[in-house]
Amino acid sequence: MRNIRTHKVEQLIIAAVAFFWCFLMWFATAAFSPSIAQKFDLSILEMGILASSAIWTAPILRPVAGWMADRLGAPIAFSIVLGVTGVVSIASSFATDYRVLFIERAIVGAAGIAFVIGIQQVAQWFEEEEMGAAEGLYAGTGNVGAGVGALLLPRIYGLNYSDAFLHLGIVALVIAAWCLIRGVAAKSAERAAMARKTATIRDTGFVWTRFTAIALMFAYAMSFGLEIGMNAWLPGYYARGFADSIRDLGFSGVRDIQIAAGTFAAVQSFNASLFRPFAGYMSDLWQRKGWMPFPIVSKALPYSPRVHWLFFALVSITIMMVLLAIAGLSGNVVLSVLILVLFGITVSFGTGGTFAIVPLMFKRRPGTATGFIGGISTLGGVIYPLIYGYSHNIHMGYVYVAVFIFIPFIFFFLWAMHYDIHPEDHGIGTKEEWLG
Amino acid sequence: MKFGLKKHGKEVTFEPWYKWGVIFLYLEMLTAIGVSAYSLYMAFSGKGGFPGKH
Question: What was the ipTM of the complex prediction?
Fold first, then answer.
């Protein structure tokens, strides 16, 4: 590990900026999909495939990113991701063939794996009692990159996606260089060495089969997986489910209805991102105060208050899903949107609460655990919209997901956390069998 | 910056950065509330969408 003078806040800023830019690049394709569709004369289906291609690589590559962060150190891992996606983003700005552009943008979409790398870096630098706020500040600030991209890129560049992709790629290379020059993998050489030592296939298998890792993956699928699924689903939901109400507000025509529906959806995303640091801080606060209000949740673990906070978040998310369906069935768009605001906040409680626990529970394997939990959970973003879409009533999909997926997830979470000593060691196969 | 007691009775003393981190996260939260309120006002009054006129 390099020995340069630095401070953990500098490392937090480097990680947050790198992650922010990766998220900006991740969602840049979707932001420009209308202009790309116009230029290449794409059908609605092709446009949808292009916009969703960004998410395809996340479940597979996020675990790889976690392993890479443990093995090489986060600054090098960030540089590789930013370097590769930056170069391909620049190349995509010159693409004249749609197939070439599609493949290049799918590769740029891999920038979304950077989340895992920064979580690992922050875990390697901050102390237990400040972990919630530190991880929350990192992830919440970085997540905003998605919203900022959707909001600002089309306004700055108009229909000129080529220039946008070029500039995004160039800045990515500059940030990659910054990570290499100023980034330091861990607070101490011992911490870095421990993470490197545990980045093996056996350790990966061990983490992936732990009940608590699976429970936290479910918790993240209930929060972040839900958030990205809702990002894709909500504009269409409001445009279809509340078309008449939106017309009554004074919006006429497809374009105007899309603007209103997109506004409601964006508010969810914005709250889910910007409340996330607060959620991490609340986890710290519950821990500090020793708040453990739920009799059915374990109280024996050193970080039990954080588990209680996450349990509160998961129950809140489930309740909000049901309320969202009730508001939809009532046909009251104002009520639905107000619940959606609260919904976004409770989602942030889940995302912030999950990653206030992961680095503490898997101290020796932060990247591997984050890769699994942050990667596989993104499948929720694909599965939930499909369930909503196949529901006979457009509003009832939320109830189906809440009852048939979220409630079983919560029960599994409670069960996995019931061990009083080292719950992270329990799983399929013993520690000795996996690690020797 | 000192806060109460940790679960096992160990006193927690935060470094100065934590105070600024908490201020920053409150600012982010206020930004979310402000943008939500403004854009929903614009939408519900039929004036435009996120984050303002279109």
Answer: 0.81
